[in-house]
Amino acid sequence: MYADSDGTEDGGEGSILPADESLRENGGGRPTLPVDGTLRKGEGRIRHYRWDVKYEYKSPDCFKKLVITINGRSPGPTIQAEEGDTVVVEVNNSLVTENLAIHWHGIRQIGSPWFDGTEGVTQCPVLPGDTFKYQFVVDQAGTYLYHAHYGMQREAGLYGLIRVSPRQPEPFAYDYDRSIILDDWFHKSTYEQAAGLSSIPFQWVGEPQSLLINGKGRFNCSLSSPVTGICNATNPECAPYSQTVVPGKTYRLRIGSLTTLSALSFQIQGHKMRVVEADGHYVEPFEVENLFIYSGETYSVLVKADQDPKRNYWITSNVVSRNRTTPPGLAIFNYYPNHPMRSPPTPPPTPPAWDDVKPRLAQSLAIKARQGFIQKPPTTSDRVIVLLNTQNTINGYRKWSVNNVSFSLPQTPYLVALKDNLKDAFDQTPPPEGYDSVNYDIFSVQNNTNATSSNGIYRLEFNSTVDVILQNANTMNKNNSETHPWHLHGHDFWVLGYGNGKFDKDKDPKKYNLENPILKNTVPVHPYGWTALRFKANNPGVWLFHCHIDSHFYMGMGVVFEEGIHRLAEKLPSSIMGCGETKTFRP
Ligand SMILES: O=C1O[C@H]([C@@H](O)CO)C(O)=C1O
Fold first, then answer.
1. Which residue ranges does the record assign to the Plastocyanin-like domain (predicted)?
2. What's 92-146 look like in SS3?
3. ipTM score of the complex?
4. What homologous superfamily does CATH list for 178-366?
5. Ligand 1 pocket test, candidate residues 203, 394, 398, 472, most atoms within 8 A of CB
6. Most CB contacts within 10 A, which of 69, 117, 395, 520?
């Protein structure tokens, strides 16, 4: 028998074990590095986790509701591994009446596309009572995330961090390594939200009731009544998170956002933050007073505890890019030996104006790859796909569309359908490569009466270089364009540029940053703006690319890319089967 780890923060490492003979290397222990110091894929240790996923009543913001927990916790345990290790997570679905799938956000799943955890794309859902074993190599050091990828389940609290440490020294120094995971919190269940979004009349999810920092927030209990639910402001479950720091020491804070809706501004009162990592890649360092962070992004910042040590300071998160009605998320930056719960003597800092795009665009532009760690992009691309993001109505239902196509998930996962040539499993007509950029006015409400729903996909030539231009536009409300964080599964992409207004295919590519663009897996497209990305289609599999706002993806804001499907192993794991046309595929 082996011991399981719950992977607690700060030293809670996954245990080393001979879980699976096929994975065993050096008895499962630390590998002997080859003489040249390089490590081949999967040569590391095995980190084994066993998770029980269920609904439990919790009060993360003092308001009692059903929360999805992993081994009793939300956020779930942090996965800790070293570059090259194999992570094995055995997930038991104890949700009783609900399916499940878990996505390992930022892990490219090279050689294991079937364990990307994307329901409908790479696997069938895990049924209640079933156990699913995810098994993948964490081939890149950095800060990553995991979360539910079934319906709008992430909203219920199934999320956590993955920390992968490097085998080489890092280009910056710090004394302690800590994690902060940000979320927005809604009191309605995922069912109420999803049903509202797919109803006529449309019922929007609204703004979050609170913002959580490491799973703790504060709802104003005077706003609740015995009818709306139980709220107890003195419940210890909603005591604020407190990060204790030793005066004079430098802290690396790994900050991840898994909000379901909100873009955030994160700040530590009186302290500057030095940004050093974004989505697992080293950043040419720059200082900020507040960090803008979009759902699906991770950053590492260095913070020195160099202020007056006789007091505590506020750690805050605030909604930006949507009209702010949610109170700030508050945590405490606690200077040892002050009491960790002592409120700072001054009010929290004033957040930036919610509708000021300029500083957000400026931060996006400031993020460059760090000197000495630059991986240059190919200088040209083989294909350019322009994706216009619009809101529209299809058959009376409110939707989001990309080039007038609102994405819907098929019953049979694409991975199986493509591998086994199940042509009826999804629409074989690919979605458009662009939109009518000459005539379409991105600054006004457009009715887009031709919009349709489809599950057609983009098929990419293996090893080709693909550019994607995300083009934002006005929503169905006047003078309104939202920020959308787009996340690509299975790859990192180079961020070549951002701009205001309509992308100009002749002029704008000349301004691309081909010298030191950052590699990321999630990137915002700002209101009325565009964002240009480049990636190599070199990871055989089927990969979702979508807005990381849960309700927007649910309403159709996504596309799917296939590449190199025929290079995959003869047989896909039978554990991903069992739905749609794969019902009979399990042995
Ligand atoms: O998808 C959305 O719908 C609402 C609103 O546009 C409905 O009118 C909103 O704020 C979104 O982000």
1. 53-168, 179-336, 436-564
2. EECCCCCCECEEEECCCCCCCHHHCCCECCCECCECCCCEEEEEEECCCCEEEEE
3. 0.97
4. Cupredoxins -  blue copper proteins (2.60.40.420)
5. 398
6. 117
